[in-house]
Amino acid sequence: MPVFSLGLPWAPPAAPGPGGPRPAAPCGFPDFRGSGCAAPRASACAPPGISPRAPRRSRAPGHVGYVTRCPRARGRRVGSGAVASSIARAEPATAAPRRAPAQAALSVRGLVKSYPARRAPRRRGRATAAGARPVLANDGISLEVARGEIFGLLGPNGAGKSTLVRQLTGLLRPDAGGITLLGHDLVRHPRRAPRLLAYLGQESTALDELTVALAAETTARLRGLDTAAARRERDAVLEELGLTALAGRPLKKLSGGQRRLACVAAALAGRRQVLVLDEPTTGMDPVARRAVWAAIDRRRAQEGTTVLLVTHNVIEAETVLDRVAVLDAGRVIACDTPGGLKATVGSEVRVELVWRGEPPRDVPDIEAARRLASIAGRRWTLRLPPDLARALVSTVTQGPAFAALDDFTLATPSLEDVYLALGGRGDGLVRA
Ligand SMILES: Nc1ncnc2c1ncn2[C@@H]1O[C@H](COP(=O)(O)OP(=O)(O)OP(=O)(O)O)[C@@H](O)[C@H]1O
C-alpha cells in the first residue's frame, strides 16, 4: 500500500541514482556525535574575516558554514518515504554570512571542562564512585566573537552553556584550552574578568535584600562610577527597563520576572565593554523581554558593546542575535547567522496540526502524516517540502480531518528546525 494516496507527490522512495538520495559513502564531513561520516568532529566557530585557524566553510560540496552534521542525515530523521527522499535530494542552500568586524573581542580555543564523578552513597563505611562517571560539560569548544557582536549560545538543558560562560567570566577554571577576552588571557588571569565584563548568572540571589534602585546604583559604584554618575546611571537604566515604579521595592518582594528584570538592570548599570548574560529573560513577560532586547541592542549600537547571550529560547535567538552557536552535549554543532543556519534546512516548511480529538486515521493522508510527525499530545509537527506541506494542508482543511482539527500553522523554518535537523533534542528548546 502506498504511503500516501490522493495522487499527491508523496510517493514511495526514489531509487538511488542521479537526482536520488546521496550515496552512503563517507563524505569526509564531521557528523553530529561523530557518527556516520568519517572525518573528525569540528567544534569551532569564527565570524567572517576573524580567524584563519578555523576555516569558515567546508570544502566538501554541499556543506555549509559550520554545520557539523552531514546534510544527508536529514533524510534519516523523517523516515524512509518519499518525503525523506526528496528532502535528502535537496541541495542545502548556501548561507550568506553577515560580515562582522575583523577584530575579536573574545577568542575561545579548544575549551574542555569536565566535572568530577559524584561519589555514590557510603556503603558499609566506604564511599565509592563505582558507576559514576565524570561529566564532560565542554568538549573542545572554539569560538570567535567579534567586537560589537551580539553572539548567542543556544542549546537545551545540560548542553554546557553555563559551564562555558562561567569559564569566560573567570568563575571556573578550564581543564584545557585558551580564553582571550579583549586581549587578556583569562585562563592565566581570571581575576581580570570582572573589570572587563558584566555577568548576569542564572541564579542571582545576592541582591535580594537590596531595593531595585540600590542594586543598580551599588553595581554602578562597584564598577568605578562616582556617586552622582552612579545615580544618573541607575535612573537611566530603571527608566529604560520600565522599572522606575518598582525602584523602592526590595528584590525579594518582587515577582520572578520582575526580580530577573531588576538583575538585568544591575548588570547593565556601569559600563562594561562585554556583557555576558545567562538566560536574562527567563520568566519575563513579552513587554519586559522586549525592553531587555532593546536595551542590549542600544548598547551595541551606541557603545559598541559585545554581548554573549545564553538562551534556549529560539525566538529570542532569531530576534536579537547576529550569530549563534548551537551547543549540544558540550560541543558546538553549528554556528552562523540565524538566517544562515535556517538556510541549511533549505525550503522545508513546518506544519503544525492541533487536533480536537482523535484524528481520522482512516483518511490515508492523515495516517501517513502521523507516521512522519513528531507528536506531543494533540499536536503533530511535520517538516515537509512546500509541495507536500500544501497537499497536507489541503487534506486537513476539508472533510473529516477538518472536523477533527482544532488549529493548524504553516511556518518557514526556525532555529528549532535547524537544531532538530542537526540531531538535537527539541524538547529542551523554548518557543515563546
Ligand atoms: N557543578 C557541577 N557538578 C557536576 N556536574 C555539573 C555541574 N554543573 C553542571 N554539570 C553538568 O554539566 C553539564 C552541562 O551543564 P550546564 O549547566 O553547563 O548546561 P546548560 O547548557 O547551561 O544547561 P541549562 O540550560 O539547564 O542551564 C550537565 O550535564 C550538568 O549536569
Key structural traits:
29% helix, 432 residues, binds adenosine-5'-triphosphate, 4-stranded antiparallel beta sheet, 6-stranded mixed beta sheet, 14 helices, Rossmann fold, alpha/beta, disordered N terminus, 22% strand
Q: How would you describe what is shown here?
A:
The chain has helices at residues 73-77, 82-89, 161-168, 193-196, 212-222, 227-240, 256-268, 286-303, 314-320, 338-343, 364-372, 386-396, 399-404, 415-421; strands spanning 104-115, 120-123, 126-128, 135-146, 150-154, 176-181, 184-185, 197-200, 274-278, 306-311, 323-328, 331-336, 349-355, 374-376, 379-384, 405-411. With 432 residues, it is α/β, with parallel strands linked by helices. Among the domains are: 104-114 and 135-342, P-loop containing nucleotide triphosphate hydrolases (Rossmann fold, 3-Layer(aba) Sandwich); 349-412, no CATH class. The strands form 4 sheets. Strands 8-9-10-5-11-12 form a 6-stranded mixed beta sheet, sandwiched between helices. The protein has a 4-stranded antiparallel beta sheet with strand order 4-1-6-7, with helices on one face. Strands 14-15-13-16 form a 4-stranded antiparallel beta sheet. It is globular and about 75 Å long. The site of adenosine-5'-triphosphate has 13 residues, from strand 4 and helix 3.
